[in-house]
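A further point concerns the way the authors explain their paired sequence and structure data. Since the whole study asks how a given chain folds, the encoding of that fold should be made plain. A single example would do more here than another paragraph of explanation. An entry of this sort, consisting of the sequence and the corresponding backbone structure tokens, reads as follows:

_____
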Amino acid sequence: VPPFHSFYWHKPLLYAGMNILSGGFLISGLAKDVKPTDSLAISVAVAVVLSAIMVIIYLIIQEYHTLAMPLLARAAELGLNTIAGMALYLAVFTTLAGSLYIVAENDMKKALLTAAIGLAVSCLGFQTLTNRFYPIIGYTGAALTLYGLYLLIFRRSNREFSGS
């Protein structure tokens, strides 16, 4: 398959936007003392690595891109079910832990309520959840990323213009 022939780029980009949204809140609290230049360097490095990973995954899942979990299907075909299952579990767990940390704010009642709601919503099924919620959260994350980039550029140009 020629590169990017049949792959739908909006789904992984929306997933990345969703993770940027939830991860951004979490990381911003942990990186308060990091210099802006260091933060930018880290961001560029992460963007390069994640872009490379997305291209590699794209090349691996060409025939499976319409499935709910194409990488898991490809791994099963190669006999790597256990490894892929563990990687998927870790991906879900880290997303869940980060999101729960953001929502609960160290409040056990909020954490339990959020977990209960999440458990109830999970009964809709993975495909339904990804089709309905990933686009909403992903577009929000992408918009906030663009807004953050705009602020970074705008603030920098204002400081340079004013001589600060």
In short: Residues 126-162 form the longest helix (37 residues). The chain has a mean pLDDT of 76. The helical segments are 10-30, 36-60, 70-77, 81-104, 108-122, 126-162.
